């Protein structure tokens, strides 16, 4: 995993971000996978990362995908056996958004998850603990999504203002998705000055 986070980030900065983005940092239960999840700006060990997602920016707009169920989401997905974080991110961007990275991703943090399911989602994944890694990067949307048969079937890719991205994501997700976009916008602004 290419780490571009500021390793000098103190607990004070983490506490400040948690106070400004309370829904994102609140303990959660993801019923679909029976996961207890907790977001942190501290990055997990590489071996725990099973899912990678990106707030992709193109000309300051946020890239969103809409699937055949009319569900808006940020591009990303499940890491394959033996796949690096960077390779997974590149593959998922192409599959879901028809996009490619224009630079190194900056990692926002991760949801650390623990499940009481008796088996891992995929046999090669860590169990019962895993992590969903979240980042931001500038991207170019330069082709159609490849839509592999075993993935989400994307019917639309749209670049929208951050506030519109937050609104569209809240249509099918918990409040923390909007805060995740807000955090990405803030950290991108700090990084690009």
Task: Please tell me the overall pLDDT.
Answer: 92
CATH architecture: Alpha-Beta Complex
Number of strands: 10
- At the first level of CATH, what is the class? Alpha Beta
What is the fold-level CATH name, i.e. the topology?
Nucleoside Triphosphate Pyrophosphohydrolase
The tally of domains stands at: 1
Account of the protein in words:
The protein has 193 residues and is α+β, with helices and mostly antiparallel strands. The protein has one domain: Nucleoside Triphosphate Pyrophosphohydrolase, CATH 3.90.79. The chain is built from five helices and ten strands, in the order ααββββββαββββαα. Strands 1, 2, 3, 4, 5, 6, 7, 8, 9 and 10 form a ten-stranded mixed β-sheet that branches. A hairpin with a 4-residue loop joins β1 and β2. α4 packs antiparallel against α5. The longest helix is centred in the C-terminal third of the chain and has 17 residues.
């Amino acid at each position: 995993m290419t780490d571009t986070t500021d390793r000098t980030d103190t607990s004070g900065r983490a506490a400040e971000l948690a106070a400004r983005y309370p829904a994102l940092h609140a303990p959660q239960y993801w019923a679909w996978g029976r996961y207890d999840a907790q977001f942190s700006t501290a990055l997990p060990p590489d071996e725990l990362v099973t899912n990678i997602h990106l707030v992709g920016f193109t000309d300051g707009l946020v890239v969103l995908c809409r699937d055949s169920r009319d569900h808006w989401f940020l591009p990303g997905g499940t890491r394959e056996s033996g796949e690096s974080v960077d390779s997974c991110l590149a593959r998922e961007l192409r599959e879901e958004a028809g996009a490619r990275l224009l630079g190194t991703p900056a990692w926002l943090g991760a949801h650390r998850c623990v499940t009481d399911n008796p088996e891992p989602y995929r046999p090669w994944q860590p169990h019962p603990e895993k992590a969903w890694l979240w980042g931001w990067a500038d991207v170019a949307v330069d082709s159609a999504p490849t839509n592999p048969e075993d993935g989400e079937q994307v019917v639309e890719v749209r670049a929208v203002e951050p506030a519109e991205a937050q609104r569209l994501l809240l249509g099918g997700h918990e409040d923390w998705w909007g805060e995740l976009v807000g955090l990405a916008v803030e950290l991108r602004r700090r990084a690009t000055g």
